[in-house]
Amino acid sequence: MTIIKRDTMPNDSGSAQQDDLDRLKLFRERQDAEAKLHWSRNSYFLVVMSILFVAYGQKPVEGSQLASFQVLIATLGVFLSTIWLLIQHRSSKYILYYKSKAREYAKLTNTPDVYPERLGRSIEMRKLAYILPLSFLVIWVAFIILRVPFVFPSN
Fold this sequence. Notes:
With about 160 residues, the protein is mainly alpha-helical. The chain has one domain (about 15-115, about 125-150). It contains four helices and no strands. Helix 1 (about 15-55) runs antiparallel to helix 2 and helix 2 runs antiparallel to helix 4. The longest helix is centred in the N-terminal third of the chain and has 45 residues, at about 15-55. The termini are far apart.
């Protein structure tokens, strides 16, 4: 982590301090906004995955056509789970960036840090949220593996 240093003139320190406080406020607001978007996206993807699970369980056709339909739904699930995972990762990187910048400016302005680096033996929620797309990805791949033999039966 790099600490921001400033060369200021004696009568310019109030202005520099205010600029740093403004930047601190900006980075805290951006982090809060990204965290809200992060969880909103999770909610949307969970709804979509639920709809795909319902679609997978439907039987609009019979026999090998049903297996083909289910493989198609599961393939869409794999695709969307992968997209979800990539979005989660990018969002996590943004949150980490904004938090680190907010910490830098908090130190620079002698302001209390609202994002403590250590909270005992806990896992950050943004890291824990990786479990959602990964578990759906595993489930969809398992569905594909289980249904492909029925699409291409060996007689």
